[in-house]
Each structure stands twice: as C-alpha cells, then as structure tokens.
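Protocol step 4 of 6: structure prediction from sequence.
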Amino acid sequence: MVSGTVGERSFEAHPTVQDDGSVVWWLVDDTDHRLAREALRTERERTAFLTEASNALLSSLNMDRCMDVTARLAAEHLADAAVVVAPLRGRLLPVVACLHGESPQHFEHDADPADVPGLGEALQGFPPVPSRWIDPASAPAWLIPEGIGEVGSIVITPLPGHGVPAGALVLLRRSGESAFTEGEEVFARLFAARAGAALSAARLYAEQSSLTGTLMRELLPPALHQISGVEFAGGYRPSKDSERIGGDFYDVHPAAATGEASFAVLGDVCGKGLEAAVLTGKIRNTLHALLPMAGDHQRVLDLLNGALLSSHHTRFATMVLASAVREAASVFLRVTSAGHPPGLIVRQDGTVEEVGSRGTLIGVLPTVTSTTIEARLAPGEFCALFTDGITEAKGGPLGDELFGEDRLKDALAQCAAMPAEVVVEHVQMLASQWLGGQPHDDMAIMVIAAPLTHHLSAVDGRTRGRFTA
C-alpha cells in the first residue's frame, strides 16, 4: 500500500495482481478517515490534558499555587505564553505570567482592566471577546511576558468561579505563527472553566481560613502575665489535637485602679469543639460586660445565669471566680465556685489545701447559690484552678485509670514556691504523659501566685519587671 496527498486530499493506493501477472492499483480517497483519526487523537490528547490539569489544580487550596499551575499549564499546552490576572485588590491587579518552558512570575500592577480590550469584561465574568477582535498592538507592556518577542494573536477568556468571577486568562502567541483557531479558543474556555473552579475554591478557602483564624484568636484563652504584683499563668489543651478551641476557658481582667483586685475566671462549658466554644465566647463577653460588678461574685453569677437561661443554648457551664489583690508581700484572694471542682492552694512547705467554696451550675436553675472563700497567699504560695478534664484524664499503665485529684495534689505539692508558669507546665506535662495519646476532654489550668520577691516596677504591665530579693 502506498499513501500520499494530492492538494488538500489524501489517498491510499492498494495493488491487486491479476491472473495474467499485471497489477491493478486501486486509488482510495482517505481524507475523511484521516481527518477523523486526527480529530480523535486531538480529542484524546485534550482529554488527557484536561484530566492532568484538573488533578494539578485541585491538588492545592493555595491561591498563589493555583495561579502558578494555571499559568504554567496554559503556557505549556495552549500558547507561547500565558498570563493569569486575578480580580483587583484595591487598586492593584495580582498577575502571574509564564513563558513556555520557564517558571511563573508574580507581580502586582496598578492598572485599569478596562484599558485592555476584553480584560475588563473577562474579569466581570462576561463571555470572551473573539481573538480576531483584539489587536495585539493594543496590549500594554505589563501584559506581555518578557522574552516572548512580538505578539501575533491574543485570547482573553474569563476564569469562571463559584458565583463570582475568579479572574481572567490571557493566552499569547508569537507573531509569525498561526493565529488561534475557533476550536482552540473553545478548548481554552474548557481549561479556563476548570482553572476558575480551582481558583474560586482556593479563594473561598483563604477567606474562610482568615475568618476562622480571626474567630479562633477571639475564642482562644489569652496569654496570662503578672498584674499589679500578682502572678497569673494559664494553660489550655482542647479535646482534639486537630482543634484549637473547645469548652474550657479562662480570663484575667486587670483592676481598674491601683489597690483594687484583679478579676479572674476559669470555666467549663458542657460539650466539646466549636459549639461549646461559641458559648464560651458568649460567657466571656458577658463577664466582660459585668466587670463593674466584679467585686460581688454572687451578683455576677446571678446575672450570668439569667443571660444563659434566656439564650437559645441548652448547654450549661461550671466556673470559678477569683479576685486577687497584692497586699504588702502577700496576695489576698477571694474565690467563688459555681458547680466547679474546688481550687487547690499550695503553701510554701508543699501542703495542699482545698478551697472550700461550693455552688450550683450556671444555666440550669433559676437561681444560683454559691459560697465565697477568702484566703491569703504568702510569698511563694499559689492557688491552682483547673477543669475536670485534668483529673478525669484516663490513661496510666493500663490505659483506663483516671489521673485523679490525688495525683494532681502530689504534682502541685512538688511545685511549692515555684513560679506560676512552671506550675502550669509541670501539670500539663504530667497529664499529657498520663494520657499517652488517648482521647481526652478539654483541659485547662490557671495558677494565681504570690511572687517570692518584692515587686518594684514592670514594663508596659506585661513583664516580670524588677524585683528585690
């Protein structure tokens, strides 16, 4: 068989040997079959490319990486160069440009998209302008990747997102090469649809991550420090290592004036995870609003209980309130419990005493009953407030024994006369070792201590300041 072309047609010649030895050649027009085979091969290559593109684009939810992948794939398979333009960030256009065979380049440009024919429409999600309508000479310099040379044809197509345009894709082909065909423009739109979906998902993820991060910062317990000569330290571990927030919380509110008591609270909301954390946020905000009444613990608990009963939440909470003020070298402490495990005071000689305050849960009964206990901490002594996630941590040699209050008391006794931060770290370390990686409830501990040294001054009220022996 012999094949070849005549003009724009292709033919196959098939020989047939006759009985007398002569050869007869049959000429068959193979043009339609050849075009069909080429179309099928092209379709398979495009399908394979779109599959590769989808896998690459969906492998990351990072916005910059998605833009990189979009520009690189487009430059490798669709054009001599590609430019991805994201929606405006203020006055700047985020841009990623990629030349065939090179790495993508990021930059931001102060430009009006409407100045580029077809770009303004693409960024608004309108159908693409046909490439034959775009004069390459009208493209601004920032849109032409360095090294491509003279541009002969340009395609600008939108990157459709989830309800909101994700940007625009600009394809560039060098002068002297064939212009983009209608079929190539259609295929570019198919690629752009996949790229736009990936970019939109990445942008949505970034927005949600930013929002979540902001909410997390508001819901996480704060970093504690020394206030007016009283040491405060706290530690928190959520029930799941994959989460940062939960139902345990603590706060310390500095005194409004010198000589007045700072107000501290540690609590435990029924439940775990985000739902419990939302209620802890409401409780913390309510307590902040009640700070003018912080000297009257019972009044604070009554008002907080009323706020929880009138809300749509069905969860309850336990908590302990503490007012602490420095008096000479010691710290005067008032502690009120509302359904919470009693606090533990550790004296200089390692003796551990229970704070005998008792009370009812918050958010269950119409009225809250509680008792307030007064105590004095000598230099080096401290009061530890904690949630039941620590004492009920299940682990040990057999994996099913509770850490328990006795072990907690022993751990605290070993920390006599130590700084508050050291006490917190020691208890957290022992509880973590006891768990051995097993599931657990939220765990929180707060330590209020009287420093061993005399306080002279502090920088910005947030450091240890200077002390005398």
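Step 5 (inspection) to follow. Residues 182-219 form the longest helix (38 residues).
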